[in-house]
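Model the whole thing, not chain by chain.
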Amino acid sequence: MEFFRIRKDIPFMRHALVFNVISLVTFLLAVFFLVNKGLHFSIEFTGGTLLEVNYAQAPDLDKLRKQMEADGFTDTQVQNFGTSRDVLIRVPLSKDAETSKVGERVMASLARVGAGGTATAGGMAADAPTLKRVEFVGPQVGKELASDGAMALLLVICGIVLYLAMRFEWRFAVSAIIANLHDVIIILGFFALFQWEFSLPVLAAVLAVLGYSVNESVVVFDRVRETFKKKRGLTTPQVLDHAITSTISRTIITHGCTQMMVTSMLVFGGPALHYFALALTIGILFGIYSSVLVASPLVMWMGVSREQFIQVKVEKQEAVV
Amino acid sequence: MNRYPLWKNSIVLVAVVLGLLYTLPNFFGEAPAVQVASVKSTHKVDAKLMAQVEDALKAASVVPQGIVLDLNSIRVRLVDTDAQIKARDVIEKALNPVAVDATYSVALNLVSNSPNWLTGIHALPMYLGLDLRGGVHFLLQVDMKGALTKRLDSIGADLRSLMRDKNIRHGGIGREGQSVVIRFREAETREKARAVLADNQPDLLLVDAQDGQDLKLMATLKPMAQTRIQEFAVKQNITTLHNRINELGVAEPVIQQQGADRIVVQLPGVQDTAKAKDILGRTATLEVRMVDDEASANPGIMEQAARGQPPMGTEYYVERGGRGLLVKKQVVLTGERLTDAQPGFDNQTHEAAVHLSLDSAGARIFKDVTRESVGKRMAILLIEKGKGEVVTAPVIRSEIGGGRVQISGRMSTMEANDVALLLRAGSLAAPMEIIEERTIGPSLGADNIAKGFQSTLWGFSAISTFMIAYYLLFGMVSVLALSANLLFLVALLSLLQATLTLPGIAAIALTLGMAIDANVLINERVREELRNGSTPQAAITAGYERAWSTILDSNVTTLIAGIALLIFGSGPIRGFAVVHCLGIMTSIFSSVVVSRAIINLIYGRRRKLEAVSIGQVWKPGLATK
């Protein structure tokens, strides 16, 4: 089998402007949604209590909501989680002192409801939910998580820029990081647009994707460097075209394989891994696009040329030994 | 020719064997076991106790599969759950003759079923996090300001009695915010007070101040003393938590300091959060009471008391060392008056001793009581779980002033350490607040394992199918390399006993999905070399060599992201990051070295290699469409 039978280098760079405009538009849209709608942070960031309960029969969510309200919980979210018999309840932080007891109070409140119309037949005991999971997060923790997340992102950016600048050239470093940060913003834009829950695993996925798509750019840049050194007489756009064309089969196969794994997580991983896998999917799809078709034109605009690698060549040989 | 030197092949072979060895325990599953741990820090779990457990089991003709002694517990492995419950009852009876006053916790647990020789080389199954095995997780914040305020309050009381002892007249002592303020009428007395304070309270920083007519001396804690008090507060709270949690009978509790002022408590298998919270918040106390010497000296009364009929107004206790004594019900002092307890040595006899510091009110009471009862015995009791134990009952030889009390006699250094710890551990040094709580039901944990396993399995199969279909034999080798990667990763996780969480399993899956990149790079390069007309052997060499620098670069960037997560991540992210970073490192080795070793084994020796099985190599020149 051979999927990619490419006779000539594909003239990607001829359309560089188009690609850059497309990514600028998606980027601006993502920023627009982020600003307008904001992220739907999980309780890990906002603080609050989360309960996952399981009923023997599918409960009437409205009844649960009403009972919760009657018991003095305002602003709670009650929704199904995975199946119709699993219910997820989010209670925001309240001012009263006993925040850590909220979980028990919610369970008491739920026990009073029973699961909808069948309550009389089965009796209360059968319809009382069983607790699968409780999470309580105090306000201090959430703030720290947000700042830690930002610090982690900053560290990743600095680390990657430094490494690429050292190994290649500053132009490559800057364009790779711009291209991939634009991925990150787009992932966040999706989460804002659809109001998907942004939790800690999603943050981990976003950072992992950042590292992963940078390595995509690295593969292309590696080829660019090699082509510059090997083939004389090619213009910069031609070199870039050649590099992208000769790595495109690998790009698509690798991403396809990674995506197979991620799809498997999306299908079999259950609700706990759902948004994690979703963030990865978006990241991988946009990663192909941005690391190849955004980073390379950026390198070109910044004026990369053959001369920059002749100097590097001497250093490199020493480094390899 | 593509041949690996012997040492390289040996490295691969050794790595694979070690990988298999350390992955092995994960397949044995778990066996029912009984775990014995000490509830009181004065009793250690040692070989003697192990012999006791063995004897008890032998007497009841329960045959254990194995008995293991580790740092703080004894684990007895048993054939089935029936034997487990019987063994628990037998051990419980042997070790804790009085059920209400248990010295050891005897809990049901699961231990790995792997054979002893594996356990002997520290090959253990992966350590599952709470989200996979179910349990309770608490993050507690120690109120550091509270610890300092508590300390300053007691310093204030100390200063009051110090001033009185030294006959220095002052206009009032009080705590204002984070400092203790002493008011004076004359500058002269203030100077005198300053000299006295400098001698007696080295932890205090003294500053002059004036408030209208009043001259003031502001005493604040030196920064060094503050850190010491705060560190001490966290440590003491951890000790207290340990003591309390032992009582819950949790098999493997985790109690760790996190950051400067936080404590993580993880109780696997515990579902009842309400009870757990109740126990975490409970207090144990110290009491000082007088011994009824006359009654204790009377054998008739003692005999009756031992049978549960002590005289009015007294209680019967057994002192450590086995002798019974009658203690008056009236409490002289409680643990609230205790500010510190440190192990040390007696100045004269050089015996091991415990030095107690009382606050000023406590010191005054102690002084009065000891003056009135020279020659009598005083009992120091530790009240735990509503049950008292006489730690020691020394004879008062002289009046004891200054709030410094020493307990000595019949103690080893070790015991002195333990008693000091126990006395300190009686109560919390600073209030704590639960700032994070997670409860995961056991069914959800098992569910999470199944889901994580399923995702990895199906993803892995999909990738394998594709790779073999697309690259034929080279694809097969890539799949073998990927399997080796999984093997190394699981072995490393088992070896390091890093906590595996659901995000950790996701990281295993993701890492495998990313690791295939290296093999795709190599295979594509080899094809490209073939396309450009290289001989198969040369194509293999060039393919691996050219791909190497790219693989390295791309893995380093992924690793940078992983390390950033490791540094700044907490909780679930940390679990993800650990696996991710380890996986990147194992993937470099397996995708480059292991796959090359296999390829060399297959093709390396053939001198006249016509073609390699890497799937169709399409050449632009000869269009075969």
